[in-house]
Amino acid sequence: MFLLISYDIADDKRLPKVAKLMERYGKRVQYSVFECLLSTSQLEELQGKLRRLIEVTRDSVRFYRLCEDCCQDITIIGDGEVTHDEEFFIA
């Protein structure tokens, strides 16, 4: 499945840990936004790791699942392209 995942981490010590974890699962498209092509088990694994890493009362991670039709309708103004290469990720 194709997901857009964004995060807002309140603590500067947790922030690089979350970013490093996210880089294992997807492609950074903006500072705290990643595009990810994940199986259901990879998504569950990532969510579990994030739950252990973040402070739920101060941090926020949002997962937006995009259907195939939605992915065909993504518009980018400026530099960048939509993530397509599933083999790039090493979750």
Explain this structure to me?
By secondary structure, the chain is an alpha+beta fold. The protein has a single domain, classed as Alpha-Beta Plaits, CATH 3.30.70. Helices cover 31% and strands 25% of the residues. It has helices at residues 15-23, 40-53, 68-72, and strands spanning 2-8, 27-30, 33-37, 60-66. It has a 4-stranded antiparallel sheet. A hairpin with a 2-residue loop joins strand 2 (27-30) and strand 3. It is globular. The relative contact order is 0.27. The mean pLDDT is 88. GO terms for molecular function: endonuclease activity. Mg(2+) binds at residue 8. It is an enzyme of class 3 (hydrolase).
In short:
The chain is an alpha+beta fold and 91 residues long.
Write the layout of secondary structure elements.
Blueprint: E1 2-8, H1 15-23, E2 27-30, E3 33-37, H2 40-53, E4 60-66, H3 68-72
Antiparallel strand pairs: 1-3, 1-4, 2-3
Helix pairs in contact: 1-2
Subunit structure: Homodimer, forms a heterotetramer with a Cas1 homodimer.
Pfam family, one: CRISPR_Cas2
Protein name: CRISPR-associated endoribonuclease Cas2
